[in-house]
Amino acid sequence: MNEYSFEVKAVVRVKFILVNGRTPRPQSFCALCCEPIGDSYLRETATRFSYCDHKCYVDHCKVPVLELQNYVRAS
Ligand SMILES: [Zn+2]
Fold this sequence. Notes:
Blueprint: H1 3-14, E1 16-20, E2 40-44, E3 50-51, H2 54-74
Antiparallel strand pairs: 1-2, 2-3
Helix pairs in contact: 1-2
The protein binds zinc ion.
């Protein structure tokens, strides 16, 4: 049982909202790929960053998790 990795997974799972049919004002840009946000996007509640789609959000989430896994493995 690895308590630390469990906490990371829980954070990744719950902390965003899906917005449909409402373009953000002022114009926002995806926090990962920097594309303009359209009328359907994800917003992370903790940081209020916007992501153009689910894929960008997941990719963004992978970065700290992978770093953490490397850290756990090395220690
Ligand atoms: Zn994006």
